[in-house]
Amino acid sequence: MTKELQLFQQHVARNGCHQSVKRERVLEIFLETQSHVSAQELHGLVRKKYPGIGYTTVYRTLKMIADSGLAVEVDFNDGVKRFERKLGRDLHAHFICTKCGRGFEVFDEGIKKISLSLAKRKKFSLQKLRYELFGVCRECSRS
User: Fold this and answer.
1) What SS3 state is found at 115?
2) Is the pTM of this model over 0.90?
3) What is the torsion angle, in degrees rounded to the nearest 10, for the CA atoms of residue 50, residue 52, residue 57 and residue 62?
4) Confidence band, pLDDT 50/70/90 cuts, at residue 85
5) What whole-number distance in Å separates Cα of residue 83 and Cα of residue 61?
6) Strand order in the sheet with 103-107
7) What pLDDT, in 10s, does the model give residues 28-45?
């Protein structure tokens, strides 16, 4: 059993919900994603492998995945809720284009260092960290 599955099952049990194969399959597909996915996009991926799993199951499971700490919601300021894997990923920043809505990630050790340094200096206990930078991407700035 993977660490992610174990954490998810513990969260489900703590919240009085029942374990289900469908939820575990949604988690499996979500953990395979390498990008930010909406519930609708995840449903499309799930249906390719498990056609009997409906949108409502995917939507509710995705919320449970986030509530369990395995995912975090990412806001690209376009009205679509997207989620990305959280566990085991380094601190990183999201750069989001305000013209076309595209986003990309930047992984840099400096992000972690400065965040921890600032928190220590201010005697602040970090619990959640999110970097979202908005601007205009290279392609849009050319036009």
Assistant:
1) helix
2) no
3) 10
4) confident
5) 12
6) 103-107, 92-97, 131-135
7) 999 998 778 999 999 999
Q: In this structure, what token pair is assigned to residue 79?
A: 């009205």
CB atoms within 10 A of CB 75: 15
Give the phi and the psi of residue 132 in degrees, each rounded to 5.
-130, 115
b/e 34-65 (16+ beta carbons within 10 angstroms → b)? eebbebebbbebbeeebeebeeebbbebbebb
**Confidence band (pLDDT; 50, 70, 90) for 76?**
confident
Q: Where are the alpha helices (DSSP H) in the chain?
A: 3-14, 21-32, 39-49, 55-67, 109-121, 138-142
Between CA 90 and CA 92 the distance in angstroms is: 6
Enter the tokens of residue 45: 């991926």
Dihedrals phi, psi of 85, to nearest 5 degrees: -60, 145
Q: How many CA atoms lie within 13 A of 16 on its CB side?
A: 0
